[in-house]
């Protein structure tokens, strides 16, 4: 199945207006979220992993104690695609 193409900088900027917890540009999206504790952060990673596996699209995740730093990019496309936007939406539905 073909992957969605890289989005233009304008398309990403428009999409970010609907994803206020995320920042970035056509090269990648970023969000950090602080959870109540370390185990909560690990549980969030597991929930994100389930969504990512279902989509066959995986974020870069960095866990620092109770803070998750998330990065989304479609490496095969060299930037942000619709898959990244959809994964961001699904992550927002999981996290506070």
UniProtKB/TrEMBL annotation:
GO terms for molecular function: 4-alpha-hydroxytetrahydrobiopterin dehydratase activity. Belongs to the pterin-4-alpha-carbinolamine dehydratase family. This is Putative pterin-4-alpha-carbinolamine dehydratase. Keywords: Lyase. It catalyses: (4aS,6R)-4a-hydroxy-L-erythro-5,6,7,8-tetrahydrobiopterin = (6R)-L-erythro-6,7-dihydrobiopterin + H2O. It comes from Blastococcus aurantiacus. The keyword Translocase does not apply. One of its GO terms (biological process) is tetrahydrobiopterin biosynthetic process. Pfam families: Pterin_4a. The keyword Lyase applies. Transmembrane segments: none annotated. Coiled coil: none annotated. NCBIfam families: PRK00823.1-2. Its EC number is 4.2.1.96. It is an enzyme of class 4 (lyase).
């Amino acid at each position: 199945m073909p992957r969605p193409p890289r989005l233009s900088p304008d398309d990403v900027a428009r999409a970010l207006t609907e994803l206020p917890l995320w920042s970035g540009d056509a090269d990648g999206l970023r969000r950090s979220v602080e959870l109540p504790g370390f185990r909560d952060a690990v549980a969030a990673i597991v929930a994100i992993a389930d969504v990512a596996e279902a989509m066959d699209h995986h974020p870069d995740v960095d866990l620092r104690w109770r803070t998750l730093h998330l990065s989304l990019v479609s490496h095969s496309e060299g930037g942000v695609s619709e898959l990244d936007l959809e994964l961001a939406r699904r992550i927002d539905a999981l996290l506070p």
